[in-house]
Structures are given as C-alpha cells and as structure tokens.
Amino acid sequence: MDDPHSALPSDPTVDESYTRGSRPVQPRTRSGSRTSGNDKDPQKSATKRKKTAGSKTRTSSVSTKERPARARTTTSRSANADDNGTEPAPRPLSADRWYRHKLARRIAGVTACLSLTAFISYGVLSTSYGQVIDTILMEGTMRSARQYEEFSTLITGLVSVPVLGGIGVLVAIVAAARRRPTLAGRALGAVVGANVTTQILKDYVLTRPSLGVTTGVVNSLPSGHTTVAVTLSLALIVVAPQWFRSPSAWIGWAWTSLMGVSVMMEGWHRPSDVITAVLIAGAWALALSPIERRPRHGAQVQRVMVWASLGLIVIALLATGAAMWGFSMSAASPGSGYGFEDFLQVRPWRSRVLGVAAVAWVSAACGLIMHQVDRLAGE
User: Fold this and answer.
1) How far is C-alpha 107 from the geometric centre of its chain's CA atoms?
2) Tens-digit pLDDT profile for residues 294-322
3) I want to staple 191 with a disulfide (CB 3.0 to 4.6 A). Which of 1, 39, 61, 231 is the partner?
4) How far apart are CA 162 and CA 134, in angstroms?
5) Domain ranges of the chain
6) Do residues 374 and 294 touch, judged by C-beta distance below 8 A?
7) What tens digit of pLDDT does each residue of 241-258 get?
8) Which pLDDT score, from 0 to 100, does residue 334 have?
9) pTM of the predicted model, to two decimals?
10) How do the residues of the chain divide into helix, strand and coil, expressed in percent and rounded to 5?
11) Rg of the Cα trace of the chain?
C-alpha cells in the first residue's frame, strides 16, 4: 500500500489541508459570532457570517454616501442663515472699518471747527491788521447793500421766540414720526449747547481791545443770530428722513447764508462773528449727530455744495485781495464811520468788491458745515 505522505503537494488528488501530524485547518471565529448549540452546521454558520458581513458592508457604504449629503445640508443652512442675517453674529461696531472712518471724520471735523474758531478769534481781536480786515469787510457790505435794508430787516426778524419755538416743535415732530426720540434729544442738545457757548464767549470770555485802527471796539463775536439759524438748520438735517436730508441741507445753507449776510448789512456783526458762530454750531452738531449707515440721496448734488463752497473761498480770497490792494494802515481814520469811510469813498468800487468778498466768506463757511454734518450720517 502506498504511503500517502509521499505524494507531492502539487498532486490534485491530494487534499493540501492535510500535512504530516496535523488536522484539517478550521477557520477561526470571533467570540461574537460563535454559533449556538442548536446551530452546529458549519455551512449555515458560514452563510450567516457572509450575510452579516454583507449587511455591514452595505450599511457602511450607505452611511458613507449619506455623510457628504449631511455636510452639504449643513453648509446650505449656514449659507441661508448668512443671507437672512441671523447668523453668524454681527461684528462689533467698533471693529468696522466704515465706522472707524466715520469716527475719524467726526473727530477731525470737531477739531478743525474748534481750531479755526480759536485762530480767527485771535486774529481779528488781538491784531491790528485782523481788526482792519474784519471791520472794513462789514463796512463795505453795509455801503454796497443800502438798497436792501428792508430785506435784511425781514431776515433778521425771523430770529424770534415764536419762530424758535415753532422750529423746535417741528424737529420734535419729525423725530417722533420716525420713532427716533434720541434724534430729537441730540438735535436739541446741539441747539442749546451751541447757543449757550456763543453767549458765554461773547459776554464773558472774549474782548476786543482798542488798537487805534477802528471805531467800533465793542466785541460782537460770535453772532447770536447766526448761531440760532445754523443750529436749527443742522437740527433739521439730523432728524430729517433719508429722502429729505439733502433738501434740508440746501435749505439750511440758503437760510444761514442769508442770516449771516443780513446781520452784516445791518451793521450788527462782522464777518468773523458770523463765521465763528457757524464753526461753533458745526462743532456741536458734529459731536452729537449720530453715525448711521444709510445711503445718501442726491450724493452728486451734495458734491455740488462742496465744490461751490470751495469756489466761494477762491472768490473771497481774490475779491479781498483786489479791494485791499494798495491799502496802508495810515488810511484808517477812527472817528469817521467805522474808520474806513474816507478810504472807501475814494474808490467806490471797493465797497462792492468787499461786499462780494464778505458774502462769499460767510456762504462758504455755511456750505461746508452743512455738508459735513450731512456726510456724517450717510455712506
């Protein structure tokens, strides 16, 4: 009888699971997949294992396919939430570049108004040449606008208690209609603060010393009438709705310019009185007006106000220089009018040119302040 161990492993008639001194190799099973006592058939066990492995494979494949879908759903939800503005949480307002730009604009505007007020006050009160220029501009305006005395009287008469009360009520009504009571508080605070400031400066702080170059030595800086007109106009700009903000700036520019020119025509105030009043009112309005992100109506039209104001400054410089060409301090003669009547009578055209210069200075200051307050609350 042949020895079975002598057969080669390559012989197909020999079962390769048998080797010398060994048992057939049985597949190992995990502890969780052991068969119960009632199920001892190895074929059934193998079939169960195959089914279990197949179900696990299908479950893992299905879960793998579903995961990207869930991720996409979460992404779409966050995208929709961003579109609706509900999440993520908005950034702090102080971290916004737009807000920082507006805040820097506010600080620069207030600083410029206060610095110019101090510079002009010192120049026209404490220097001889400053007093001459300031007074001769007013006298030239008076002489060249004598035919408009009734008009100037009408304009200056608008500053009265009933008019002030009516405009204050209008500002409160507009703010209440917009459901913005804080706007009314800010606007009225700027009106009260600016008017109190001008009265304190004029009556208790500033003095106009007699330097022997002009007759009118009583201090009238800043102008109270102009302060009232400017602050009420700026208050209307602050509380005005979006569609009326630009027209209110133009209306305020026209009214404040007329008021400033009228008090010079009446001989009540010099140009420096009017300009410093405009600057003080502008400082209060820029400090208290809210910084709001909202589109501006008529932005191109507002640029016209800026360029017109800058053009008026150029006209004022040229007209002042032309009228004062050849002037010497010896031409001042205190005791005759405001001190320059003789100088102006020699060449009457000087009065008209000085009147144009004074109107241009005042109108330019009013236009720039109205524009700056308007820009603070727009894009």
Assistant:
1) 11
2) 666 667 777 899 999 999 999 999 999 99
3) 231
4) 32
5) 95-376
6) no
7) 888 888 889 999 999 999
8) 61
9) 0.73
10) 70, 0, 30
11) 44
CB 362 within 8 A of CB 319: no
In tens, the pLDDT along 136-179 reads: 999 899 988 887 888 888 888 877 767 777 877 888 888 888 88
User: What DSSP assignment string belongs to 56-104?
Assistant: HHHHHHHHHHHHHHHHHHHHHHHHHHHHHT-SSPPPPGGG-HHHHHHHH
Q: Residue 346: its pLDDT value, please?
A: 81
Inter-axis angle of helices 97-126 and 271-288, to 10 degrees? 160
List, in order, residues 6 or more apart from 168 with CB less than 8 Å away: 188, 191, 232
Angstrom distance (rounded) from CA 192 to CA 203: 17
Scan for tokens 């004074």, then name that residue: 358
**Tokens representing residue 236 in the block:** 């209307």
Find, among 325, 359, 360, the residue nearest to 343 by Cα: 325
With 0-12 / 13-18 / 19 or more C-beta atoms within 10 angstroms meaning exposed / middle / buried, residue 124 is: buried
pLDDT band at 116 (very low <50, low <70, confident <90, very high): very high
d(C-alpha 328, C-alpha 342), whole Å: 13
* 136 token code pair: 């001769």
CB neighbours (10 Å) of residue 355? 24
Structure tokens at 369: 């302040």
Any residues with CB less than 8 A from the CB of 260 and at least 6 apart, and which? Answer: 223, 226, 229, 269, 274, 277, 278, 362, 363, 366
